[in-house]
């Protein structure tokens, strides 16, 4: 932030001081991308022109007053694409090679020979066709998996997904896939899209991976699907309540892999987020077009945005 401090008056604040810091501010950098403080302080944004959030998802700042304002919204698209793709590949391998059970047996000093699954030739549906979804598709395709996408518009011949199915018809296509990866942005259309009907439509042996938003999933329906073995397992990095409550049954399910919202967090990610903001700040000061401008009607950066 030092170069920015030489060109602008920078105020650092926590949630409690946000309203005071917002008064007469031209730009707001929401570095704590999980913070819910912005709506409550919005009344003080008397001259704000630009808001940047340190994440790809923008749902924490997509409240009605922000949507209706003239404030330009940008995000940090691109920082986490490859690291999240690596996480997804790791979870696919963990399921196929039964790593969790191997670790458990090692701790018990038990020698138990088993056979594992191949991932080559297995089918994957990536729900969300933005940059993170594309990175996931490319990496899984590189190890021999058959990949398709699900997005707003159905199409053929996509360079990364091949076939893209319409998300509105998701349940019709879920039975075709061995793995389903959720990475869609959280919008009114995607909230709760993975519910009882979606899990019932999946293959009994399918695995579900969520690296998008916890609210994409109806958690109670997922728990019931896992208990009833309607799906074979789930790898969850995001939850509708974070931290995941200690009483959640997900903690103790043997067919569930849990991580604390860290799928994209590689060594150096914090600095990388500031660098994205700093680059856009330089553009803003020079009167150049900003990158990663969010369409506030859609809730994400359109392709090429």
TrEMBL record:
Keyword NAD in record: yes
Sorted UniProt keywords: NAD, Oxidoreductase
Transmembrane segment boundaries: none
D-isomer specific 2-hydroxyacid dehydrogenase catalytic domain boundaries: 14-294
Domain D-isomer specific 2-hydroxyacid dehydrogenase NAD-binding span(s) in chain numbering: 90-263
Residues spanning the signal sequence: none
Coiled coil region boundaries: none
Keyword Metal-binding among UniProt keywords: no
PANTHER family documented for this protein: 2-HACID_DH_C DOMAIN-CONTAINING PROTEIN, D-ISOMER SPECIFIC 2-HYDROXYACID DEHYDROGENASE NAD-BINDING DOMAIN-CONTAINING PROTEIN
Protein family membership: Belongs to the D-isomer specific 2-hydroxyacid dehydrogenase family.
Name assigned to this protein: D-2-hydroxyacid dehydrogenase
Naturally occurring in which organism (per UniProt): Prauserella endophytica
């Amino acid at each position: 932030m030092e170069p920015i401090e030489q060109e602008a008056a920078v105020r650092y604040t926590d949630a409690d001081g946000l309203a005071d810091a917002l008064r007469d501010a031209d730009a707001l950098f929401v570095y704590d991308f999980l913070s819910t403080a912005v709506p409550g302080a919005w009344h003080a944004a008397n001259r704000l022109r630009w808001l940047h959030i340190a994440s790809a998802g923008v749902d924490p700042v997509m409240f009605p007053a922000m949507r209706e304002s003239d404030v330009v919204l940008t995000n940090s698209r691109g920082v986490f694409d490859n690291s999240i793709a690596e996480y997804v590949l790791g979870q696919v391998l963990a399921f196929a090679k039964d790593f969790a059970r191997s670790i458990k047996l090692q701790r018990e000093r038990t020698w138990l020979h088993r056979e594992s699954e191949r991932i080559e030739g297995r089918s994957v549906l990536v729900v969300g066709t933005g940059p993170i979804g594309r990175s996931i598709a490319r990496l899984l395709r590189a190890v021999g998996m058959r990949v398709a996408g699900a997005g707003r518009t159905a199409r053929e011949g996509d360079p990364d997904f091949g076939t893209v199915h319409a998300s509105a018809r998701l349940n019709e296509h879920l039975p075709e896939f061995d793995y389903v990866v959720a990475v869609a942005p959280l919008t009114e259309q995607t909230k709760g899209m993975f519910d009882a009907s979606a899990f019932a439509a999946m293959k009994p042996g399918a695995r579900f991976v969520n690296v998008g938003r916890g609210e994409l999933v109806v958690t109670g329906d997922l728990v019931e699907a896992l208990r009833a073995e309607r799906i074979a397992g789930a790898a969850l990095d995001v939850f509708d309540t974070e931290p995941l409550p200690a009483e959640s049954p997900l903690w103790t399910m043997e067919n569930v892999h849990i991580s604390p919202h860290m799928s994209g967090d590689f060594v150096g990610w914090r600095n990388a987020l500031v660098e994205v903001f700093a680059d856009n700040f330089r553009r803003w000061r020079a009167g150049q077009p900003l990158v990663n401008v969010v369409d506030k009607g859609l809730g994400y950066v359109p392709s090429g945005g």
